[in-house]
Write a structure and sequence with these properties.
mainly alpha, Cytochrome p450, 2 domains, two-stranded antiparallel sheet, about 65% helix, about 5% strand, globular, binds protoporphyrin IX containing FE, Cyt_P450_sf, Cytochrome P450, Cytochrome_P450_fam2, heme binding, steroid hydroxylase activity
Length: about 350
């Protein structure tokens, strides 16, 4: 296993952060010692854990993940099998590397929860769906699922909308007259518009500065959230100024996006119950008014919960679908062969 380059990559990425401040260093050292002491207690009892790759003290296999963690995980799966374990800092994780095994596991109620994570707790405040507490999670997940189905997601109605947006995307690409371009932004815009239609009932107006600002915020979250993942393993690193600064970019961007979404719901607040449901927002406001009638005020369908769920649904759909389509465009034979030709003609010029 080529541990050295990944380890060097890790040192290059994180050491400047770690040494960026004396105070941060001290806290990090105390934190790491505490984790180390805890690990030493746990290491004696590996129980029935499946095999694991080489692990460093305190850090486990983090230094071996390098800049492409999915490749490291795939490499270990080849060596260790479809189920293996590894330590990420103080957390022991079990890695499942087979679609059938993952499916089997996800059907077990014992695997239906999620671990508590520092970044999710701070950004989501346990609102939204993904990291919400048990009751909120189940109610809002079911609500989103039913609403999307009623709106025609996965059926003809949304297929038409997708077709329309896809045509606009193709037109935008043809206007580039064969120039090379990065697919990210053009795909993100299409996906953003589709999600905005389903969630808020509107296509984004790109000449509107507020819309621009909203997209910039979502893109900042996509860019900085990943590197802040280290905080889920060592929350104590939040005291290191450069890491704190990256995380602040994420929280500020999410707060800004939340305010934009809040304004959207305020515009609709005056409409009367029960509304005809054209989008997720209409359905949420109906549920909110129903609770108001029953309990005098909203209980589970509060304004804060709307903001948490709508922002999360936008964000989770935005990044995943964009990345999936980008991979499809790289792997699709028709597109990838054109790309290869272009790349080789550029490299011969
Ligand atoms: C190709 C596109 C997509 C991919 C590959 C994808 C992938 C995933 C995966 C792997 C999870 C489970 C994550 C985990 O358990 O840790 C997940 C959960 C989730 N996804 Fe997606 N997703 C996609 C599109 C979307 C869209 C369009 C939306 C919403 C509009 C969405 C909303 C969610 C939500 C809310 C959860 C959390 C569900 C829960 O906790 O019960 N996803 N997605």
């Amino acid at each position: 296993m080529s541990a050295t380059p990944s380890f060097l990559m890790f040192m290059k990425t994180w050491l400047p952060h770690l040494w960026g401040s004396g105070f941060g260093c001290l806290l990090a050292t105390v934190g790491l010692l505490a984790v180390w002491a805890k690990q030493r207690r746990l290491l004696g009892s590996r129980g029935n854990l499946p095999p694991s790759p080489f692990q460093f003290p305190l850090l486990g296999c983090i230094p071996l993940l390098g800049s492409l963690p999915h490749e490291a995980f795939a490499r270990w799966a080849k060596k260790l099998g479809k189920i293996y374990s590894c330590r990420l800092g103080g957390k022991t994780v079990i890695v499942l590397n087979d679609a059938e095994i993952i499916r089997e596991a996800l059907f077990q109620p014992v695997f239906s929860g999620r671990p508590r994570m520092y970044t999710a707790e701070v950004t989501g405040k346990r609102l939204g769906i993904t990291f919400a507490s048990d009751e909120t999670w189940s109610i809002h997940r079911t609500f989103a699922f039913k609403t999307f189905r009623a709106l025609g997601v996965g059926q003809g109605k949304i297929a038409e909308l997708i077709q329309e947006e896809a045509e606009k995307m193709v037109n935008n690409i043809s206007q580039l007259n064969g120039q090379t371009f990065c697919t990210t932004q053009i795909i993100r815009t299409t996906i953003g518009n589709l999600l905005a239609s389903i969630l808020f009932g509107e296509r984004f107006d790109y000449d509107d500065p507020e819309t621009h600002a909203f997209f910039n915020k979502m893109n900042a979250v996509v860019r900085y959230f990943g590197p802040c993942g280290i905080l889920n393993i060592f929350p104590v690193l939040r005291h290191i100024p450069s890491i704190a600064a990256s995380f602040r970019l994420v929280t500020d961007a999410l707060d800004g996006a939340g305010q934009y979404i809040n304004r959207l719901i305020k515009h609709r607040g005056g409409s009367t119950y029960p509304r005809t449901v054209f989008d997720y927002t209409d359905a949420f406001l109906n549920a909110q008014d129903k609770e108001r009638e029953m309990f005098g005020k909203p209980k589970l369908f509060t304004d804060q919960q709307y903001m948490g769920s709508a922002r999360e649904l936008f964000f989770t759909g935005y990044d995943t679908t964009t990345s999936t389509l980008r991979w499809v465009s790289f792997l699709h034979p028709a597109i990838s062969s054109t790309e290869t030709e272009r790349t080789s003609s550029v490299s011969h010029e």
